Amino acid sequence: LTGMTDLVFAHDGTVAKIVGDALHVLFGAPGEQPDHADRAVKCALALDEYAQSFRERWNKNGIALGVTRIGVHAGPAIVGDFGGGRFFDYTAYGDTINIAARLEAANKQLGTRICVSAILAAKVKDFRGRPVGDLMLRGRTEALRAFEPLGNGQFGDPATHSYLQAFAKLEAGDPGAMAAFAAHVGKRADDQLASFHLKRLLNGATGTQIALD
Description:
single chain, alpha/beta, five-stranded mixed sheet, two-stranded antiparallel ribbon
């Protein structure tokens, strides 16, 4: 948590609260940040890199740690001090916060580590990432397009281009989507998101809409 909170502060984020091993982070509050979306994505990528390094280091010492998952969303929220005369807590409430939490949880099923909403991605200049799909999140009646943000090196990787081609076929309803994902997974067996889509297709699913458990 020390390393993670240091990274949040380095990106001028606000740690609203720590619940167990989870961080609730805000951008654009309490002070206004016109580039809050860009900061949020850069912070998410930095947190992911740090968490992976931390996990690998402890795994080598024989202590197995799970994956750190991150959900990022943008929108209105009620932010401020909540409580009574003897105790109050600076925090944020609202649908925006709930969606961010749902996106974090969705990573486990999707095989991703960071899940960013299209609403936030649209606010980031030159956003780099790959589409995850249109997620049916709990408590919502409309699907929400999600993306997996990527660093510059990852975005330029030929494997990213291969995934984007397969996803384009999936989005277009092209029957060749299954073969495209199978070929991609054959070259990148560690790509859990592509494997997730391939499994969906093998089980008879079509299109980009994903019903989460």
